[in-house]
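Review form for a predicted model. The reviewer records the input and the model, then writes brief findings.
Reviewer: anonymous (R2)
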Amino acid sequence: MKPILIIDPGHGGKDSGGGSNQYWKEKDLVLKISLYQYERFKQLGVPVTLTRDKDVYLDSSKRTKIVRDSGAEYCISNHINAGGGDGVETIHSIYANDKLAVMLADAINKVGQNLRRVFTRTLPYDRKKDYYYMHRETGSVNTTIVEYGFADSKKDDVQQLLNDWKDYAESVVKAFCSHIGHGYVAPFEQKDDYAHELAKALEWAKENGISNGERLNEPCTRAQQTIMLYRFFNLVNTLNK
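Model under review:
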């Protein structure tokens, strides 16, 4: 199945990344975040792939070719920032709207990280081109760069990234599922293959007009139950004719 999303753990191999410090190398922390997200998306039934799944070096041309050739509609490129700031930043292409970038930044902010900014940037010498090659050279793929915090923050980013990186990674999973209209189940609700089975069931229910897959953790009224049962048995009767 063609992936809808490709996750890009930035840097790798001989390129440790500028968002490194005494506690981690950027390439390792973003790989940890990306592998976590990859497994969660698979559990939820979201078609997903990766630019790298181990510590290997990818130059810009190879990395962006993997993204372009993946067939994915979206790319999330994971990074750790540097420069003494604080908080999450998300960056979108000058040719894309900011909807997904805002959703991802807000999601990370809601689980405890400070929100620094959502922005886009052009090349200084060519205002018609994106500044970042992950936007400029990934073709039609909607690429969002996520900077989860600053490795050299003078505030609390370092401790937050050490303790809460998984919460930040999970919030991106949840927000992306919401963006594409895909059913989401939190990790603590999973038992064995429950999440994967539920995701398949939700897709089936949406495809057949029984449920829209929203508000999964809210109580269901008798009226809503009646409507869903009516739709289900109406579907069964239609199939049996």
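Findings: The mean pLDDT is 92.
Further findings: The first strand starts at residue 5 and ends at 9.
Recommendation: see findings above.
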